[in-house]
Amino acid sequence: MSVHVFMWFDVEDYVTPQSDVALGRLVDIFDRHGLKATFKLVGEKVRGLERRGHHDILTKLRSHDVGYHTDFHSKPPSIPEYLLDCDWQSGIAEFIHREEAGLDTLKRVFRRTPSCYGQPGGSWAPHVYPALRQWGIPVYLDAGPWVGLNGRPHRYCDVLDMLGLDHIAHIGISGGAGEVERRLASVVNTVDRLRHTGGEISLYAHECEFVTQEFWDATNYGHGTDTPRSKWRPAPLLDQGESEERYLAMDRFVGTLASLPDVELVTASQAPSLYRDLARGRTFTPQEIAQACAAMAGGITHQLCGGVWLSPAEVFGLGVELLAARVRDDRWPRNLPFRYFDGPTEAPATRSVSDRLSLDDIYGTCLYESAHIDMTGQMPSQVQVGRDWLSPADFITTVGAALPRWLEGDQQSAPIVKSCMAQARFVPEHVPWGWTIFPPGFNADPLLQVGRLQAWTLKPAPLA
Length: 464
Known about the structure:
Layout: E1 3-11, H1 18-32, E2 38-41, H2 43-51, H3 55-61, E3 65-68, H4 79-83, H5 88-110, E4 116-117, H6 128-135, E5 139-140, E6 154-156, E7 159-161, E8 168-170, H7 177-194, E9 199-206, H8 216-221, H9 240-259, E10 263-266, H10 271-274, E11 283-284, H11 286-294, E12 303-305, E13 308-310, H12 312-329, E14 336-337, E15 356-357, H13 359-376, E16 383-385, E17 388-390, H14 392-407, E18 414-415, H15 445-453, E19 459-460
Parallel strand pairs: 1-2, 1-9, 1-10, 2-3, 4-5, 5-7, 8-9
Antiparallel strand pairs: 6-7, 6-19, 11-14, 12-13, 15-18, 16-17
């Protein structure tokens, strides 16, 4: 089976002129091997290439995969800083407001929408994903601890997310040629292990690592310092011999990988067709929906339904729509189409005064929630059924437990069934926010709580 290797470069140093040349040299390496890489570009870097007259490099880049890496990368405030106090919708709007100028730069220069996005350093936030959907960017390609699903590609907020892969590594350029060789040996061993099962390897580096002793942003923006443009300082340079050794090591790295049997070097633009969401365009029978809802009684998580993966939110929506359609049409529908919507925006505020829920109250709730989902594109944070306020988890497991007998004509009330949001375990409650660009003591764990709510949208993205 094929081992898919994603090779990507964060192209970000808009302060050190020599990094422009490094970018051109990297493109030349892949061109010599007849291969394409993914270059995630910062908006200001592209504008700097234009100002410095490197139109030849921009032209060469057009034949490669181009992703987006924000407008100014590390310039304070970072993404988690400016989104920390935003609610869901205002955070999406704020990210778009601050970062759309860089996207427009890339679209103007390369005449296409970027294939992917990845955060600068440790600047992750869940609000970014719906913004990517609005921009038509289908893939999140980067490294980091914020989201994962069993070490494989997955869908999160309806974006193909490549965070949290089992096999992801920095190519080791900053450690010198010897470190690159060691990383290559490790990658070859990983390929050997994956050859019979297939899988993904994600490998990355930065253009500036080929010419500078340290990262440019630590020099100018370290610990939250916002150095004005007039005082930007280039990063200290490597000597020419060390730079050349790194280019040669990169050339060997690429050539060796390309020569391995069963290895396919792929770009972010290929990923959506490789990992298609097979639920799109599908319909689901009442029996399939009932089975998926019932399966979440042991914990809210993704479900295999009719041979395709559904997120917990998608199962919730189908369960709600099934009962709403039963009321509207006075009969059970033959099938229902797939639809996507985002997860809840707040932790549920619950209040139970009953042990059981009447079917009429559930019907009324489903009619209301179906319309609410259609209007907002969002799951409810809590669900009112008669006098009770339930969490979405408890509501859908209650429905799931009763649906099989309701489909058979039973009209009895449903005992409330408690459940837990097991899917939230795939988004951690805490990570170190230690990126050198963050202010001392910075903590953005509240963003993870928002991200855990959006775990309702998480599901596997297997090879199609």
